[in-house]
Amino acid sequence: MANFQKMLKEIARRNGTTPEHVRQEMQRAIDRAWEQNGGMPGSVWAGMTFRGERPTPEELIPQLAALMQKNGTLAG
User: Fold this and answer.
1) 6 in the Ramachandran plot: left (φ > 0), alpha (ψ -120 to 50) or beta?
2) Among 5, 6, 25, 71, which one is least packed by beta carbons within 10 Å?
3) How far is residue 25's CA from residue 43's CA, in Å, rounded to a whole number?
4) Could you report the per-residue pLDDT of 14-65, keeping only the tens digit for each?
5) Cα separation of 11 and 32, whole Å?
6) What is the DSSP letter of 15?
7) What's the rounded Cα separation, in Å, for the pair 49 and 54?
């Protein structure tokens, strides 16, 4: 979680905004992607776990990074 907070702060700094705003925008993007599937998990969501009805940025980012690393699309 500490790394996620550092990431938010760095993105915010580079974009002249707050970490809270960055997180809100991430959540909006996640919500739009989720809703495009009518709330039904699609192939991107398959195998991922979330505590609530839909993923949060804190849950999704590490899982996407792990998936990308597994598929060789993220240097590790």
Assistant:
1) alpha
2) 71
3) 23
4) 999 999 999 999 999 999 988 887 656 566 777 788 898 889 999 999 988 8
5) 21
6) H
7) 9
Tokens of 69: 């690393």
| Contact in structure between 43 and 32 (CB atoms under 8 Å) | no
Q: Where are the domains of the chain?
A: 1-34
Residue 35: phi and psi, rounded to 5, are -70, -25
Residues 39-64: b if buried by 16+ CB within 10 A, e if exposed: eeeeeebeeeeeeeebbebebbbeee
Spatial separation of the C-alpha atoms in residues 50 and 71, rounded to whole Å? 21
SS3 62: helix
Whole-model pTM over 0.85: no
